[in-house]
Amino acid sequence: MNILKENYFTYTIVGAGASGLWLAYALLEQGLLDNHTLCIVESDIDKGNDRTWCFWDVQTTIPAEIISKVWSDIYNQHSDSETDKLDPFQYYHIRSADFYNYIKKHLSKNNNVFWKNEHVYSTRNVNNQVEIVSNLFTWYSDYSFLSILPVADIKGKETIFSHREKYLQNLNNKRQDLFLWQSFIGWRVETKQNVFIDNRISMMQFNVNQGGNTQFIYELPFDKKHALVEMTRFGKDKLSKFEAETELKKFMNNKGCSYTIIEEEIGAIPMTTTYDIFRKYLVENERIIYIGVVAGALKPTTGYGFKRMKAYGESLAKAIKYQTQIPTMHRLWRFRLYDTLLLSILKSQPEKGKQIFEALFKTQPIQRILRFLDEETTVLDEIKIFIRLPIPLFLKFLIKHIALK
């Protein structure tokens, strides 16, 4: 990797996660780094395989080299012995280590890409440029892209993570109380017997203790003896390791097999409409641009965002290249409303979550559900969905939502 030597770079990206690296890759692909410099700031450059990403698509543009598994079938909610076809969709799995290595390999071929392993404390506009202050240096850029929040107000021994958590939960926003966690703990297991259907995923199995929340298990088989089984909670409080392991043990014991835990995955994703964007474009002189979670990359009710991060990186790079208006991650108002209503229900009446999701998967073709979650359905599609859900419950929270306006 190149070493940072100067105090000016055309672009600075703060955070080398999915959104930051997709943007860097897009800048490279659009030729914007041929004659311009990029500084990527990351406090943890050697992340390793710290997470996995999944998404569905019809014809994906994700490089095949980073896709570790593809599924074409899904568990049928009516019968464990049956499967449904995802066609024309497929469900994809990516290990973060493969993604990081792929992007960094391409970036390393360009001499205009520089890396800094430190924390950014502040960013501010100064004379049509952005001043970036880290714990070691100060430099300037034409554009600064932030997927990680500056940490200038960290006090004493408080960690960066706890600062971000506090920020997420205490934004000065009239809907700041509409906040839940999607927390998960997963095992990558190896069994001695053939117990998995290797071409079939299970997105939500609700036959687990709900614990006053909305909880379910994912099952992603890699072959007949290897799978990722993951306990997930939608709730105010994060899932504890004890709670997750209790349900995961039951899940695996029900398969009647002996197994070994190869890897463990633990994480939490904010479920909030706080980051919903109400404007389609940034104003002309905005040079501090948010990407990733703080830009609204994650769909509030699912946590999926990998495809959106890639698409937004490409949109930003093209807007800069062709000097057009810089877009935001704006969503149609009705999808923002649907997410608001569902999060409100999950927050106030978490016991209803199982009923809602089971009704969704049992009454709708999986293709319509996936298009709906991708926000690509028509109003007619959405009517077909909602008439099979608990309508009085959604109307109750719709009235409450209107009353808050």
CA-to-CA gap between the ends?
A: 51 Å
How would you state the average pLDDT, rounded? 89
- Low-confidence stretches are 153-175
The global form is globular
User: What value does the Rg take, in angstroms?
Assistant: 22 Å
**Secondary-structure element order, N to C:** EEHEEEEEEHEEEEHEEEEHEEHHHHHH
Helix content: 25-40%
Number of strands: 18
Percentage of β-strand residues: 25-35%
Number of DSSP helices? 10
Overall structural class, as computed from helix and strand content, comes to alpha/beta
Describe what this molecule looks like in 3D.
The structure is a single chain. The chain is of the alpha/beta class. Helices cover 30% and strands 29% of the residues. The chain is built from ten helices and 18 strands. The protein has helices at 18-29, 96-107, 160-169, 241-253, 306-322, 333-348, 353-363, 366-373, 379-386, 391-404, and strands spanning 2-3, 8-14, 38-41, 52-57, 69-71, 73-75, 83-85, 90-95, 113-116, 120-126, 129-134, 138-146, 179-191, 200-205, 214-223, 226-235, 259-272, 288-290. The strands form three sheets. Strands 1, 2, 3, 9, 10, 11, 12 and 18 form an eight-stranded mixed beta sheet that branches. A seven-stranded mixed beta sheet has the order 7-6-14-15-16-13-17. Helix 6 (333-348) packs across helix 10. The termini are far apart.
